[in-house]
Amino acid sequence: MTTATADALLGALRARLGQDWVWTGADAAPYLTDHRHRLHGQAIAVVRPADAQEVAAVLRLCHAAGVPVVPQGGNTGLMGGATPDQSGHAVLLSLGRLNRVLELDTDNDTITVQAGCVLATVQDAARQANRLFPLSLGSEGSCTIGGNLSTNAGGTQVLRYGNTRELTLGLEVVTAEGEVWNGLRGLRKDNTGYSLRDLYIGSEGTLGIITAATLKLYPLPAGQGSAFVGFPSIDAALAFLSLARQRLGAALTGFELIGQPVLELVARHVPEQAQPLPGLAQPWYALLEASSEAPDGAGAALLRLAEQALESGLLADAVIAHNLQQSGAFWRLRDEAIGVAQARDGGNVKHDISVPISRVPAFLRRTADALQALDPGLRPMAFGHLGDGNLHYNVSHDPARAVRHLFALEDRIHDVVHAQAHAQGGSISAEHGIGQVKRDALPHFKSPLELALMRRIKQALDPLNLMNPGKVLS
Ligand code: FAD
């Protein structure tokens, strides 16, 4: 890339989008660092198109100049997918101005939104129409639908409603060459060939840019209840999950496992956060959520379930939230306090693995043993969506030693945790994607044929390798 090429492209982008929407220097800088401030990139410019036609124009200009494009939504991704590399040869395309709700169809139970809509805005729009858009993540105040689609985001309601993929009926996508594919179909049945929609979902911006989506809506539950429970063992937690599914069926909307060391970390670093159960005497805890058609039905169902499980010994302790305030405090513990405690602790080595639910106990035991063998000071901090077999298996440092000892072992810790997940038939990325952070690990856990098939798809849809290069595939 010569300076003349970059300058010519900058001029063409400014002519098409207007001076105000092509940023360089200090204006561009905040977009070039990832959410955790661990990755820093460079770009010719940050561009902020207003609609799909402008996105297409940017892609045509970049395609003609042979310049890569890195799409970015809310920049809350944890795998560095939205951060360009250090070469400075790419254009970063922010979807932030594509932020309109285009249509809400209550008869079809669908909402059509532009890709830069913040997730919380979509949830609010649905609620105002007395509907539920169930995708729910800790980052929902900043992440965008386009980012959710591109990472196939999960969150706390997957147990009942599925990942972003299961919530999506149609997409609008701009191809690497700058064509606009309008696939915004609100159809629940459409068997007319290859599912391009499913190809783009989860592709992390490496095949094209999603500019809009038609998403499924659900009835807004009249009642919701939460319970916080303690288990004598991880096997009891699994048996209780199975019982809860039998008893509550589709009313069970969340089941968040939290290890006792995680709650201790919260107690140490976030003392202002109320602990739902005193003593922290059990090795495992869980936060459950149930929904109901009657306003008070969910709390009553959770109470009956907890009583039965306490009697049979599956539960060692339980508390049912009596009101919205108490329920809110339970969820703040899960959604906010754990993250704050980990940050105040000096950071940790993070993982986002999944295994078949039945293999969770074996994964936990074997991984803890393998980490002890690596360094007896390592402290596993496991929590996550047990109902999806998805654990955020983070590893903290020995409080008696400086955190740099932990980060010196970072690569070896990843190797141990990923190998153990793989050995249990699991995945190294349950919901955060691959991005640049896990790109080099991927070939160790996918067969050569699976990787070759992925490369053929990439080659077909992006032959010049201009769509978010260096992400997912090397
Ligand atoms: P970005 O970070 O901007 O981008 C993510 C990837 O998608 C990049 O590869 C980018 O190039 C690509 N991309 C973005 N927009 C588009 C587009 N329109 N077209 C094509 N490609 C695009 N994730 C979960 O799955 N579950 C959780 O529970 C969860 N909790 C989180 C909690 C916190 C506090 C934080 C900080 C993150 C959490 N995440 C979670 C991760 C993150 O929020 C999700 O991955 C989210 O979907 C990213 O959305 P975004 O708009 O921020 O995307």
Automatic annotation (TrEMBL):
Keywords linked to the UniProt accession: FAD, Flavoprotein
Domain FAD-binding PCMH-type: 39-220
Family from the record: Belongs to the FAD-binding oxidoreductase/transferase type 4 family.
Protein name: FAD-binding oxidoreductase
Species annotation: Achromobacter seleniivolatilans
